[in-house]
Amino acid sequence: MTTPAHTTSTTSTATPSTPSTPIAPLRIGLLGTGPWARNTQAPALAAHPGVELSGVWGRRAEAAEVLAAAHGTRAYTGDAGIDELLETSDAVAFALPPDIQAPLAVRAAEAGCHLLMDKPVATTVDGARAVAEAAAKAEVASVVFCTLRFAPETAAWIAEQASVDGWFTARAQWLGSLYAEGSASEYADSPWRREKGGLWDVGPHALSVLIPVLGDVEHLTAARGPADTTHLILRHTSGASSTVTLGLSAPPAAAGMDIELRGAGGVAAIPGWDGAEAAFRGAVDALAEAVRTGVPHACDARFGLRLTELLAEAEAARYPGSAHPGGRARHRASNASG
Fold it and tell me: How many CB atoms lie within 10 A of CB 31?
């Protein structure tokens, strides 16, 4: 794929009255047609003034056609459709399950497309490493959409806290009620989310806030809570510690998100933010800046790999002796029946 025109545009300086050469919009294709694509990615991309939504790919042709028509672009489907969309795009955004996203991200990088990925990049370390290595080899920009890193309100708060020394400890809770009794959320239909639980779904959000403020994680302990809930205790390279509670099955009255830092300067609590669509626009801006400058964003494919390494370590600690969540329970049942 050729270098996008916008990355090489220049401003004429022949005379003061010479108009600037217009910067071409970043052509971004969207892979996926599910709830996140419909409610967040597609609207944000279609409305972004610096983006041309170059197409929508979906496994089901009808779903791709409906979403593409809603946003005035072209629909693609099938394996050949992926190649066609990559050929007409400078970058691709993903709204797919992580272990479908990962190999397609490698394919997109090899085609010369920049990457705007959802979290987690993959649910295996090998899958996430393959993406990071492909992006590095192809020299394409990448951003992993961890909501709190890109929502304007929380991004500013994270940057402010990261500039402060003396943090002692932190506490993060992200409890959803996606799988609580009576929930009618369309996001609950996601097979990967139901299988992997809150650790993999909302864990990246919490870690993406704690790591830039407190430093990388050098030691991790994990324990099971009720339903899919996971409790983490982390020791960071700064010397600070943090605790994290993650889950998608809390009673609705108990659901919510809260992150609090405590240190020499006092207590700081994360502010609210204005929804996922505004945050995704921030991620688009971050990708465009990385493309324009060639400077990698901190929340890129390499950071996505680090998140997957930590989540895999936590899963192994939560289910010791088992390669799959629920393995211990099945093992106990098998022993009991035997």
Answer: 29
Torsion of CA 291, 295, 300, 303, to 10 degrees: 170
* DSSP labels, 2-57: PPPGGGT-----SSTTSPPPPPPPEEEEEE--SHHIIIIIHHHHHH-TTEEEEEEE
Per-residue pLDDT of 281-318, as tens digits, reads: 999 999 999 999 999 999 999 999 999 999 999 999 99
Q: Are 29 and 55 in contact (CB under 8 A)?
A: yes
275: left (phi over 0), alpha (psi -120 to 50) or beta: left
pLDDT of the residue at 10:
34
For residues 246 and 230, what is the distance between their CA atoms, to the nearest angstrom? 5
Distance CA 247, CA 203 (A): 9
How many whole angstroms separate alpha carbon 152 and alpha carbon 310? 26
Reference 150, options 294, 30, 303; nearest CA is 303
Mean per-residue pLDDT, 191-206: 96
Return the residue matching tokens 């991004």: 155
Q: Are the beta carbons of 176 and 256 closer than 8 angstroms?
A: no
Angle at 288 between CA 284 and CA 291, to 5 degrees: 140
Cβ-based neighbour number of residue 11 at 10 Å: 9
- How many other C-beta atoms lie within 10 A of the C-beta of residue 310? 21
Q: Phi first, then psi: give them for residue 229, nearest 5 degrees.
A: -65, 140
